[in-house]
Amino acid sequence: FGVAMKAGWGLTGAFWCALLVHWALCAVPGDRLAGLPGLRAPLGRQYSGDVDIGQGKHMHYVFAETPHNASGRPLVLWLNGGPGCSSLDGYLYEQGPFWFDRETASGLVPNPWTWLREASLLFLESPAGVGFSYADADYVPDDNSTADDGHRFLTRWFARYPEFKGNDFYVAGESYGGIYVPMLAYRCALDPAINFKGMAVGNGVTDWGMPALANDALYWYKIGALAQPQW
């Protein structure tokens, strides 16, 4: 992860280059987005930028405010899994405000299932080296350092957006988020400066043995090595 990995697998390079230019031009400390390439809907209040967390690491985030009473609704941090998957997958494919137009395969359209109906969403590309997050020098991340870096990011992010420090805060994720989420949530629960309320994990990895056993059993059944009664 010492060198920032390319984001947006399967997407056109032109889109991501244009998107990066938009993010790079945002002013600090506001980081307010003025627009997104191909967006055919109102943008709403969204922000993006890098947060320097020390030790030569710079964490990229995208923050989307709910249009429904943002000051009183929860704030949810979202982490995609991997390890090594960009949380922009969540932003552009899953619960974010927009997704790609599936009819024309071009442009962005509103996501009817976005979680913004209930909460503001903070997407973090973690650890440094994933997506647009980067480190100044090569390093070897592990689960503990990733959780520590995530906590440092949150401390600095809340300093940048103090108006959200009082909101109920949740950590959520999927896949390897089964590791990322509880380890970061534990650190948040111990920090009195964070109004931590809970965590959520979907289809999470918690132990490599369990998913491996399930996959092996399915494979054995499909090739006829496991009979129907045993299956």
Keywords:
7-stranded mixed β-sheet; 22% strand; alpha/beta; 5 helices; EC 3.4.16.-; two-stranded antiparallel sheet; Rossmann fold; 231 residues
Report on the architecture of this protein.
The chain is an alpha/beta fold and 231 residues long. The protein has one domain (13-222): Alpha/Beta hydrolase fold, catalytic domain (Rossmann fold, 3-Layer(aba) Sandwich). The protein contains five helices and nine strands, in the order αβββαββββαβαβα. It has helices at 13-24, 88-93, 143-160, 177-189, 209-222, and strands spanning 46-54, 57-64, 75-79, 98-100, 108-110, 120-124, 134-135, 169-175, 196-204. The strands form two sheets. Strands 1, 2, 3, 6, 7, 8 and 9 form a seven-stranded mixed beta sheet that branches. A two-stranded antiparallel ribbon has the order 4-5. A hairpin with a 2-residue loop joins β1 and β2 (57-64). The chain is globular and about 60 Å long. The termini are far apart. Mean pLDDT is 85; it is low at 1-12 and 22-28.
List the helices and strands and how they pair.
Elements: H1 13-24, E1 46-54, E2 57-64, E3 75-79, H2 88-93, E4 98-100, E5 108-110, E6 120-124, E7 134-135, H3 143-160, E8 169-175, H4 177-189, E9 196-204, H5 209-222
Parallel strand pairs: 3-6, 3-8, 8-9
Antiparallel strand pairs: 1-2, 2-6, 2-7, 4-5
- Major sheet summary line: 7 strands, mixed
Whole-number count of domains: 1
Straight-line distance between termini = 40 Å
What is the radius of gyration computed over CA atoms, rounded to a whole number of angstroms?
A: 19 Å
Which secondary-structure class do the elements indicate? Answer: alpha/beta
Keywords: Carboxypeptidase, Hydrolase, Protease, Signal
Protein name: Carboxypeptidase
Signal peptide: 1-26
Family: Belongs to the peptidase S10 family.
